[in-house]
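Run log // design_07
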């Protein structure tokens, strides 16, 4: 699968995942910093000029610059995985234009579906522009694409853990990439390891990831004697937004040599209780000491709810910030105002007088 990064974060993560990833940016400086081997595409503004600064957090600039690379990207995004942050100007603006073009296309074949990895800001601590750009993107760009089902799976990464654990950027990007590698290794493990039950082949997997839903996947050591739902909830992938009601599911259970391969039945039951028939396989992995479960849940979030969730956090952020500003900069002297004294200073025809009389202040 071809990987494409757009904007600063998108390029850094995409090229870390795949050294041959295609990097797209409005900023020549950021493109030149990449040491990866893949093609580098400089998008330029409609005036024809490149920009050393990038889109300066303005999605309108990225959106405009898309026109310069549109023909090239339209072909490249088919069947590819596109990475972009939603907070800045370049990744946001170009991803928006790509989504609009997908909405305008009719009947996109499954193998041409574009997958998206989006990096959302941590609303509590990141800048207001990043948060506002993200709200707009979810609302105006992603929502219509979800409604029309024109994309493949969408992976909603969040910078929450990065900020809460104060991780170096490069390390955090490595965590995102490692986690994606684990999920995308499912078909390969099926072909390389000894099959104990069922099978997920490359075609099954390709079909699953071509569905236009959000994908929450996670990997953890599975305890066959413990409740499946509790374990999945406890081991949600902290790098991704939390999942909602599952629509479709896929899992791979890796069992150590001599382990009990029937442990998977309880996982099938767990999904069946939610009216979901999972795609699954059980393999023997002699390198493991404990069972390991890779599970992916596809869910759909009504765009309005998605935006509402995000805005709720952003709103709390805004309130905290406003309170802080007031605490820091505004001294409110205790004013003792006698309305009738004040009223005498005014012109007798003043509307304010009429109003003050009406509300019985004078
Ligand atoms: N996880 C992660 N997030 C990043 C990285 N670089 C930037 N971000 C986040 O991405 C958002 C900003 O997007 P960028 O990719 O820097 O912006 P851009 O798309 O290049 O747009 P402009 O710089 O405005 O032209 C913010 O939420 C940043 O915290 C990174 O390397 N890793
Ligand atoms: Mg940038």
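design_07 sequence
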């Amino acid at each position: 699968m071809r990987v494409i990064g757009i904007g600063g974060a998108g390029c850094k993560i995409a090229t870390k995942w795949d050294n041959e990833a295609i990097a797209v940016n409005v900023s020549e400086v950021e493109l030149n910093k990449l040491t990866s081997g893949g093609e580098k595409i400089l998008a330029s503004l409609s005036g024809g000029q490149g920009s050393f600064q990038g889109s300066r957090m303005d999605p309108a600039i990225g959106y405009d610059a898309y026109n310069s690379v549109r023909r090239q990207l339209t072909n490249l995004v088919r069947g590819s995985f596109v990475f972009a942050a939603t907070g800045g100007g370049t990744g946001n603006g170009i991803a928006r234009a790509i989504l609009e073009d997908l909405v305008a296309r009719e009947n996109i074949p499954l193998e041409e579906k574009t997958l998206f990895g989006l990096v959302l800001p941590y609303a509590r601590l990141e800048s207001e522009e990043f948060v506002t750009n993200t709200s707009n993107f979810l609302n105006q760009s992603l929502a219509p694409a979800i409604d029309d089902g024109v994309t493949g799976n969408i992976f909603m990464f969040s910078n929450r853990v990065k900020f809460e654990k104060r991780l170096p950027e490069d390390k955090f990007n490595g965590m995102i990439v490692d986690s994606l590698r684990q999920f995308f290794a499912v078909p390969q493990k099926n072909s390389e390891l000894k099959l104990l039950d069922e099978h997920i082949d490359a075609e099954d997997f390709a079909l699953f990831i071509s569905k236009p839903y959000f994908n929450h996947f996670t990997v953890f050591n599975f305890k066959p004697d413990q409740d499946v739902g509790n374990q999945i909830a406890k081991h949600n992938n902290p790098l991704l937004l939390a999942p909602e009601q599952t629509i479709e599911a896929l899992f791979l259970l890796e069992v150590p040599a001599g382990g009990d391969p029937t442990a998977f039945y309880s996982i099938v039951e767990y999904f069946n209780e939610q009216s979901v028939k999972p795609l699954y396989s059980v393999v023997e992995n002699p390198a493991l000491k404990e069972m390991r479960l890779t599970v992916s849940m596809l869910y759909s979030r009504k765009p309005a709810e998605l935006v509402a969730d995000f805005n709720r956090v952003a709103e709390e952020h805004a309130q905290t910030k406003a309170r802080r500003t007031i605490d820091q900069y505004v001294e409110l002297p205790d004013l003792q105002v006698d309305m009738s004294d004040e009223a005498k200073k005014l012109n007798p025809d003043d509307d304010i007088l009429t109003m003050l009389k009406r509300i019985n202040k004078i």
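Residues 334-362 form one domain.
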